[in-house]
Each structure stands twice: as C-alpha cells, then as structure tokens.
C-alpha cells in the first residue's frame, strides 16, 4: 500500500494531463529547440561551453584510466537534465514573448525552494553509483588493466571469450532507463509549476508509459547527437547540449497539459 507521501504525489501528478503526441514529434522538438538556440545564442552557447569543458575535464582527469572514464561519461549524462535547467528557463521566457538573458539563467540557480537542488542531488547520487559500478565491473572482470580506449575496445568490446561488454551495457541500461523515464519532463515541470519532486517523477513516468514510441525515438536522438558531440573532441557539445536542452523544454510542453495550473514566475 502506498504511504501518505506517495499518495499525495500521485494526486499531484493526476492534476496534470498527458497529451498525445505522434511518433515523429521529437523531430519537431529538435526544430523548435534549434529556433530557441538561434534566437538566444549567447546564454545558450555559454551553457554548452561550460558543459563541454566539464566533459573535457573528466577526460583529462581520467584519460589514463578508461575503466573509470567509460562510466564517468555515461554518468555525466544522467545528471545532464538538471544541468540544463537554465536552458529550460530561456525557452520558457522566449515562449512567453520575453527577452532571455544571462540573468534569466542565473536566477534559476537561486531557487526559492529546494526541489531542484534535492532532485539534482538524487541524480548526482545515481550518476556516482553508476561510475562506481562501471569501474568495479570493468576492473574486476576485464582480466587486464584498461587504461586506454583501445584497451577497452580490445579487451571488453571485442573479447569473444567474455560477455563483459554485454553485461556492462545491460547494467547501464538498467540504471539509465528508469533515470531517463524519471527525468523526461520532471525538471522542466519542477521549474514551471508547483509540484513535489515525486509528483513530477510520477508525471514523467506517465508520459513514458502512455507514449513509449515517441519517447524511445527521443532517447535515441539524444544518444546519437551526444555521441556526435563527443566524437568531435567535445567541441560539438557546445552546440548540441544547449540544442537538446531547449528541445527538452518543448518535449515537456507537448507532453504535459498544464492548463488551469498556476505557473511559477
């Protein structure tokens, strides 16, 4: 039986309807996200630069420990939704016909309550858990030191006598899938409306369960574009990460019916 906190969160979630979206709607989210990026390039690209530099810092710190680097990069993606909060705020201001500036972003990082901070800590905990799990799995079962990307490819990915890579992917999916389902629209919803963290997570899960096909396409697009950004020595992430952040705001607006609910200004 659900406890009183869970029941309250379920009631909060039911206040928001989930709107139907066609399978290919994620392409429209990308188009509108790109329009926001072009309309407000300064703060958006600054976001992308900071996040790309963070990725580069992870690479520099763990470049000789690829057993750690593999998990660190994928763990970084788990906390990306909370790091994109400023981008959601920019898209919200543009949607309301207002001018978005760097002050718009900075204001978001001075929250009036602890909901976004608390959710961010939970995501950071999930990311850290995956980093440790990934490192333990690779170092424990690879059989040889994994210090370079070539070591990972040779002894983990292409090792015919082992199922380590399959196990690594499976464990990553077990963690990443529920985190993605929990964050699909939860962070922009927390930014935009007064709802508890658990209520926002329940709403996000409802969207995933009711419209799995467009959500799956959206997840695939996020992964593909992120890999493209990483393949360009992180330079592509300067543009791709804010693009995806703005697009994620439009995913929230398309999926969640907030009519009749007071917004947070």
From TrEMBL:
Keywords noted in UniProt? Membrane, Transmembrane, Transmembrane helix
InterPro entries xrefs: DUF2189
Is the keyword Transmembrane in the record? yes
Transmembrane segments annotated in the record for this chain: 45-62, 68-90, 116-147, 167-191, 211-244
Q: Name one Pfam family in it.
A: DUF2189
- Keyword Transmembrane helix present in the record's keywords: the answer is yes
Protein name as annotated: DUF2189 domain-containing protein
Q: Which organism is it from?
A: Paucibacter sediminis
């Amino acid at each position: 039986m659900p406890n009183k906190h869970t029941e309250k969160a379920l009631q909060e979630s039911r206040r928001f309807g989930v709107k139907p979206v066609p399978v290919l709607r994620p392409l429209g989210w990308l188009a509108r996200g790109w329009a926001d990026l072009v309309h407000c390039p300064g703060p958006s690209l600054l976001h992308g630069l900071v996040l790309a530099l963070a990725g580069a810092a992870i690479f520099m710190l763990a470049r000789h420990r690829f057993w750690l680097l593999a998990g660190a990069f994928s763990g970084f993606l788990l906390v990306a939704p909370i790091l994109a909060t400023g981008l959601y705020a920019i898209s919200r201001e543009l949607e309301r016909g207002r001018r978005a500036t760097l002050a718009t972003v900075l204001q978001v990082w001075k929250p009036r309550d602890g909901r976004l901070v608390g959710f961010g800590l939970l995501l950071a905990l999930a990311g850290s858990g995956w980093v440790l799990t990934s490192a333990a799995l690779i170092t424990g079962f690879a059989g040889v030191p994994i210090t370079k990307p070539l070591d990972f490819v040779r002894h983990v990915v292409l090792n015919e006598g082992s199922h380590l890579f399959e196990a690594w992917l499976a464990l990553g999916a077990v963690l990443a899938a529920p985190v993605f389902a929990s964050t699909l629209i939860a962070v922009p919803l927390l930014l935009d409306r007064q709802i508890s963290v658990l209520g926002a997570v329940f709403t996000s899960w409802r969207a995933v369960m009711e419209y799995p096909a467009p959500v799956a396409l959206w997840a695939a697009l996020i992964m593909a574009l992120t890999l493209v950004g990483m393949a360009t020595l992180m330079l592509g992430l300067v543009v791709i990460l804010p693009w995806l952040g703005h697009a994620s705001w439009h995913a929230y607006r398309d999926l969640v019916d907030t009519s009749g609910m007071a917004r947070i200004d």
